[in-house]
Amino acid sequence: MPAMSDAELADAVAEGCFGAMTLDTSVFDQFECNLDYRALRSLGPVASQHGVALIFTDVTAREVQAHIARAATDQAAKLTAALNQYRKAWRRPENEASALTTTCRPTPQSWRKRSGSLS
């Protein structure tokens, strides 16, 4: 399909030229895979308003889940490092920092429940 400007794309959607659309993982990455962003939440209502089916492939769903899991793991590692710095600075027992990070570590089930649309 040839590249279209934003205006051409908007006109084509308004004219009903598309029966379905999908998004690449890179679009979700632009929003840091945060499914609560207004732009992502509005996709369904906008698509149905124009009679366009919104389709997400299994590959895209798995990639988005993997990106969310990787981001959560990275943030958990940063939290662990920060708590270890706190523990060392205040000369706190080592098990105090590990107990905190264990309770803060996200699980796949927790982010699936939150996202709802990717499970």
Count of individual beta strands: 2
Order of helices and strands: HEHHHEHHH
Mean pLDDT: 81
Helix segment tally: 7
Give me the oligomer status. Answer: single chain
Main sheet: strand order: 1-2
Class computed from helices, strands and strand pairing: mainly alpha
Number of domains: 2
Q: Whole-Å distance between the termini? A: 30 Å
Most strands sheet: 2 strands, parallel
Radius of gyration: 20 Å
Percentage of residues in helical conformation? 55-70%
Strand content: under 5%
Gross geometry: elongated
**Low-pLDDT residue spans:** none
Describe the structure.
- Residues 94-119 are annotated as: Disordered.
- The protein folds into two domains: 1-55, no CATH class; 60-119.
- Helices cover 65% and strands 3% of the residues.
- It has seven helices and two strands, in the order αβαααβααα.
- It has helices spanning 6-14, 25-30, 38-41, 43-49, 58-89, 94-104, 108-115; strands at residues 20-21, 53-54.
- Strands 1-2 form a two-stranded parallel sheet.
- Helix 5 runs antiparallel to helix 6.
- The radius of gyration is 20 Å and the shape is elongated.
Key structural traits:
7 helices; mainly alpha; 65% helix; 2 strands; two-stranded parallel sheet; 119 residues; single chain
Could you outline the blueprint of secondary structure elements for this entry?
Elements: H1 6-14, E1 20-21, H2 25-30, H3 38-41, H4 43-49, E2 53-54, H5 58-89, H6 94-104, H7 108-115
Parallel strand pairs: 1-2
Helix pairs in contact: 5-6
